[in-house]
Hints:
It is a single chain. The chain is mainly alpha-helical. The chain is built from four helices and two strands. It has helices at residues 5-16, 32-37, 39-55, 65-78, and strands at 82-84, 89-91. A two-stranded antiparallel sheet has the order 1-2. Helix 1 packs antiparallel against helix 3 (39-55). It is elongated.
Amino acid sequence: MSKYETLDQLILDRIGETPAPGLLTPATPVPFLLLSANSAISAESERLAQIEKTEARHGKSTAPGWRIINRRLQALRKTERIRSTSRGWVLVDEAA
C-alpha cells in the first residue's frame, strides 16, 4: 500500500468526473490547474509535502504540494491509467 494511494484515487476520481457517453464523444480533458485547485487534492498533496518535510534532513522540503501532484500525474501516466492531451488529462479507455 502506497502512501500516495489516496492522492492517486482523488486524481483519478476528478479526471473521471467528466463523462464520455458515446464512442464518438471524447472525455473532457482536465488541465493541471483544475486538478491543483481542487480542495481535496490540494489538501492531500500538502499533507504529503509536510510528511516529506519532516522526513527530510534539517526540515527542508523536497517538493511543494503542486509538485507532488505533478509527480503522481506522471506516475499514473507511466502506468497507463491516464494520458495527457494538449488540453489536459484524460482517463485511458480500457476498451481501446
